Amino acid sequence: MILGVFVGLIAAFFQSCSYVFSKRFVTKFRNANIQLLVSGHVFMGIFSCFVLPFFWQKSMPPVLTIAKPLLLCVLFYFGGQAAMFMALTKSDASRVSPLLGLKILVLALITVFVSHGHFLGLQWVAIGLAVCAAVLLSLLGKEMTAAAWIWIILACIFYSLSDVFVRQTITCFPSAGLFHAAALTASLCYLICGFIAVAAMPFFPVANSLQWKAAFPFAFFWFVGMLFLFSCFGSIGVVFGNIVQSTRGIISILMGSLIALKGYEHLEEKVSVKITLFRVCAACLMMSAIGLFYYGH
Question: Are 76 and 163 in contact (CB under 8 A)?
Fold first, then answer.
């Protein structure tokens, strides 16, 4: 379990980096969310082509066994990505990223009411702490618009459903090791995403050369982050995995503060030291939630 937590922390770092580059893209190229979604996933499809041969199984399960969870994972993932990009046009990455921690509550409810799972008392306290921390991490500073909240909530719902099917897809490879199966699932998922992105290109505005160049770092950091995140989900489950993943809120705040101090206020709102310290205190709640969930397991 300790290894799963460590892998989740690495995933959180790479995701935080990807949010910065996606924010830079949507700020630099107004009304170009579709171009980022398409070009970014073309790159991820190419990355998958290089990674997949290293994890391919000689004895793969029947196509129909993995097709349903894999395709549903991709479908809900695209919905989450589109909603997240819209949220980034309405608010800063350092505020959107922590609020994606609300996924924890959505996943907990799915686990209880759909999958008929259960959590112990301390684990529910940990989930509550994680949700409170996610909200506190984003509420300080300029007031968020209703549109930003709507897109963030939609992103949480779609991402949560995608995470559930990620876990289901990983279990389709019982003969592979846990992390091997997770990397295979991630590669297959983003290979399909790449094919869909290429197929969509004739129907949507095509990215220009500058937009392709700007989309590359987002795609790279996101793809590497997903390799680690899928491994985290396979190891410790989607609820605990998302609690660990929510540390990206802390990382995003620190990155946002550094970006603002460097003068890039068009990317990140500059806030006072007091607000930054308060956000760090809220981030400590998130770390407490991780420890409490682990202790109450």
Answer: no
Dump the DSSP string for 15-68.
HHHHHHHHHHHHHHSTT-HHHHHHHHHHHHHHHHHHHHHHH--SSPPPHHHHHH
Instruction: Please state at what angle helix 103-113 crosses helix 238-245, rounded to 10 degrees.
Output: 170
CA distance 98 to 195: 31
Mean pLDDT of the chain: 83
Return the structure tokens found at 267. Answer: 């990317």
Cβ(159)–Cβ(77) under 8 Å? yes
C-beta separation of 231 from 182 below 8 A: yes
- Give me the percent of the chain exceeding a pLDDT of 70: 86
Task: Report how far residue 282's alpha carbon sits from residue 136's, in angstroms, rounded to the nearest whole number.
Answer: 6
pLDDT tens per residue across span 48-71: 999 999 888 888 888 888 999 999
DSSP helix/strand/coil, 243: helix
Flag whether the pTM goes above 0.70: yes
Q: pLDDT, tens digit, for every residue of 107-162?
A: 888 888 877 778 888 888 888 888 887 777 666 656 778 888 899 999 999 999 99
pLDDT by residue (tens digit) across 198-208? 999 998 888 89
Q: Are 286 and 130 in contact (CB under 8 A)?
A: yes
Nearest-angstrom CA–CA distance, 151 and 108: 20
Three-state helix/strand/coil letters over 144-167 = CCHHHHHHHHHHHHHHHHHHHHHH
Per-residue tokens: 85? 């990009």
Q: What is the rounded CA–CA span in Å between residue 115 and residue 106?
A: 13
Distance in angstroms (rounded) separating the CA atoms of residues 38 and 33:
9
